[in-house]
Design brief:
The protein has 247 residues and is mostly beta strands. The protein has 3 domains: 2-61, SH3 Domains (SH3 type barrels, Roll); 67-120, SH3 type barrels (Roll), CATH 2.30.30; 128-245, endopeptidase domain like (from Nostoc punctiforme) (endopeptidase fold (from Nostoc punctiforme)), CATH 3.90.1720.10. It contains 4 helices and 23 strands. The strands form 7 sheets. It has a 6-stranded antiparallel beta sheet with strand order 18-23-19-20-21-22, sandwiched between helices. A 5-stranded antiparallel beta sheet has the order 6-5-4-1-7, with no helix packed on it. The protein has a 3-stranded antiparallel beta sheet with strand order 11-8-15, with no helix packed on it. Helix 1 crosses helix 2. The longest helix has 13 residues, at 225-237. The chain is globular and about 55 Å long.
Length: 247
């Protein structure tokens, strides 16, 4: 086994070589490589223990990352100049190694990133719902974990990791691992609560509104809370299975 990191902006994590996408990994994320064969690496993601396969070309040697992308997305430029050629786009949560920094631009081994788009690795945000709100309008993508496309559990995970809170990658394990069941005695809905269905999860934004990545809108969207519960039931996806309180 060996330690590596992702060196592509986004890469699909597959259940088997050439198989369907299970989740995604983004630039700088740390992984353990268990095996490599025919251009495929069998890996385990450090952030959540998710296992699967990625192309070997998506991996590079692990380096000491120092900062993370705290803007929804950013560009990496060839020079410390926004008019210079851009090399790639990085999504929220991507991790980089900083070599030097000025007020305007930060130098990394891959190029220059606007300094205002980066935060030191130890920086933790405090409101996961506010993180989810950054992603409003992001296209829905089954198994997605980036600004280019994200699903319900990917949104919850990105929100919690940015706040320094561990989180599994899929909604089923999230339901089992996160928070405590809210009181059944009508304690109402509070910002930061999570509602779970079989195969789906949503943040409570306030007592009357959900924010979630959903296939109904094909985007991260706000939706009235009780009408959303009714809609999901009416479309055949079942009732709420858990109302969890994290804070």
């Amino acid at each position: 086994m060996s330690n590596h990191q992702i060196i592509q902006p986004v890469v699909d994590l597959l259940g088997q070589p050439d198989g369907p996408r299970e989740r995604q990994l983004i630039w700088g994320e740390q992984v353990t490589v268990e095996d490599e064969n025919n251009g495929w690496a069998q890996i385990i993601a450090t952030k959540d223990g998710y296992a699967g396969y990625v192309p070997s070309a998506a991996l590079g040697p692990a380096v000491q990352v120092t900062h993370w992308v705290s803007a929804l997305a950013t560009h990496v430029y060839t020079q410390p100049d926004f008019k210079s050629a851009d090399l790639r786009s990085l999504s929220f949560g991507s991790q980089v190694q900083v070599l030097s920094q000025t007020d305007r631009f930060t130098e990394t081994p891959e190029g220059f990133i606007p300094s205002s788009h980066l935060s030191p690795l130890e920086t933790q945000l405090v409101d996961p719902v506010a993180v989810a709100e950054l992603f409003l309008g992001t296209p829905y993508l089954w198994g997605g974990n980036s600004r280019l496309g994200i699903d319900c559990s990917g949104l919850v995970q990105a929100s919690l990791l940015a706040c320094g809170l561990p989180c599994p990658g899929d909604s089923g394990p999230q339901e089992r691992a996160l928070g405590n069941y809210a009181s059944p005695n009508g304690s109402g809905y509070l910002r930061g609560d999570l509602l779970f269905w079989k195969g789906h999860v949503a943040w409570v934004r306030d007592s009357e509104t959900l924010i979630h990545a959903n296939a109904y809108r094909m985007a991260v969207a706000l939706e009235p809370l009780q009408p959303a519960i009714d809609r999901i039931l009416d479309q055949g996806d079942g009732p709420v299975t858990a109302h969890k309180r994290l804070f």
